Amino acid sequence: MTQRYLSLASISLVFILGGWIGAFAPKAQAQDAGRIAVVVNEDAITLLDVFERMAIIFATTGIEDSQEARRRLLPQILRTLVDEQLQLQEGRRKGLEEVILDFNAAYRIVEQNLGLGPGQLEPFFAYNNLNLESLNQQLKAEVIWSELVERRSRNDEITEDDIEDELDRMRAAANQPAFLLAEICQVVDDPSREPEIKANAWRLRDAIMSGASFPGLAQQFSQCASASEGGDLGWIIESQLSDELLAVAPGLEVGELSEPIKVIGGFTLILMREKRIGFDAQPADVQLTMRQAIFPATADNSAEVQERAAVAASSLRSCDDLDVLGEADPTLLVGSSIEIRLGDLQESFQEAVRPLTVGQASAPVETQQGYHVIVLCERTEVEPGLPSTDEIAAMLRSQQFDLISRGYMRDLRRTAFVDIRI
Fold first, then answer.
1. Does domain 173-282+396-419 correspond to CATH entry 3.10.50.40?
2. Which helix (H) or strand (E) element contains residue 161?
3. Of 7, 142, 192, 246, whose CA is between 20 and 30 Å from 124?
4. Segments making up each domain of the chain, as ranges
5. Would the CATH topology of 173-282+396-419 be identical to that of 283-380?
6. Given this model, what pLDDT does residue 65 score?
7. Pick the CATH number of 8-151 from 3.10.450.50, 3.10.20.30, 1.10.4030.10, 3.40.50.2300
8. Which residue from 166, 150, 204, 157 is spatially nearest to 182, judged by alpha carbons?
9. Residue 346 and residue 215: Cα distance in Å, rounded?
10. Average pLDDT over residues 55-68
């Protein structure tokens, strides 16, 4: 079948978008929102679908809403929406159209990537006037795709011998450098599109270097299994790195983002989160149980809200005190307790939480959502040692998933009819 993908040079939607993102002009929305942007086989993606996904990306990644930002993001958004349609269509063909998704469990992962507490995603979407259904479609496509790939992988199960072999390699590498990495993958399924995909990877890097959230962009645009975890790869010892990554990763400083790296099947961006030797425990490995309250703020009342959050923080003596605070002020977003590794928090939250003792509240931390006050409920030191067999099995399954997923998605794209109408 014919396949037509969007060329970067032919994008004209940026002129249609104008200033609509986040606040559509009613007349323009009525006239154009239902207009078809892309046809993917038997399904259509409308301009409204594009608008809604772009609004979510601006609200969740920290990218400043501007015409230039929309122009840079548009190719990635269209590619993502096309891939979602292909995954949903394949799910229908394989009898998965009635899949029941536990959105609450899926929301918890998104909340962690956004630095929100449990139950705060829906209020966050409502506060920012975002369409939750757009996110739900993305999550449904991810779940269906995961099941489709899992079905293909069942003929090649991870065995106890595979796990033991990996453990032997880890024991032999106990004194090697180890890296805590995160990734954003861009797959090249057609060699003629390699320059376009590489340019997309550079645009993502530019956005991150300008302050956009790495986990947020990874969840929206990465095409590896780690996308649902905000790109998190966990700890990887030096000998486990591919030749392409081995040439780059050891030279990165903590917190440094690589340039796009050419790897088998595409390009990847690597974020160096932490370094250590072997499997020694690090201060960032401390496990925390904490709760937070978000004080929503705007540019007009930011100073006033910050002061109010600071006063509230000074009165807190335990995690339970947040319930009282939330009952007294219904405008606050008060989350349930979460368990998280210190090093997995965003840097600004790490700095706020690191010195806290149990029961102590942090100073207000400013984000796009407002001011966060965090209370430490529990702190648990972690003993050094090799990963568990369950952790190794999960790592091997993730690697297997990526290999199968890339080939499967490449086949769907090659046989798809994709008609760009903008």
1. yes
2. helix 160-172
3. 142
4. 8-151, 173-282+396-419, 283-380
5. yes
6. 85
7. 1.10.4030.10
8. 204
9. 10
10. 87
DSSP H/E element including 180: strand 177-187
Q: Look at residue 191 and tell me whether its pLDDT is greater than 60.
A: yes
d(CA 198, CA 226): 20
Task: Give the pLDDT of residue 4.
Answer: 29
CA distance 358 to 375: 8
Q: Rounded CA gap, 181 and 271, in Å?
A: 6
Is the Cα torsion angle 125, 128, 129, 130 positive or negative in sign?
Answer: negative
Give the pLDDT confidence score for residue 23 in this predicted structure.
34
Euclidean distance between CA atoms 281 and 279, whole angstroms: 6
Supply the pLDDT for residue 33. 67
User: First CA to last CA across the chain, in angstroms?
Assistant: 21
pLDDT of residue 314: 94
Q: Is 373 exposed, middle or buried (0-12, 13-18, 19+ CB in 10 A)?
A: buried
User: DSSP E strands: which ranges in 148-229?
Assistant: 177-187
8-state DSSP, 381: -
138 in Cβ contact with 52 (< 8 Å):
no
* Confidence (pLDDT) at 31: 55
Task: Please write the tens of the pLDDT for every residue from 86-138.
Answer: 999 999 999 987 766 778 888 887 887 776 777 888 888 998 899 999 999 99
**Residue ranges of E strands in 188-258:** 232-237
Quick one: DSSP state of residue 62?
-
Once rounded to an integer, what is the mean pLDDT over residues 236-256? 92
Distance CA 248, CA 242 (A): 10
H or E stretch including 296?
Answer: strand 287-296
CA–CA dist 46, 33 (Å, integer): 7
Q: In the structure encoding, which two tokens stand for residue 12, read together?
A: 């004209």
The verdict on domain 283-380 having CATH code 3.10.50.40 is yes
Helix (H) or strand (E) holding 126: helix 121-127
> CB count, 10 Å around CB of 42?
9
Q: Which residues pair with 181 in a beta bridge?
A: 234, 272
pLDDT tens digits, one per residue of 225-237? 888 788 988 888 8
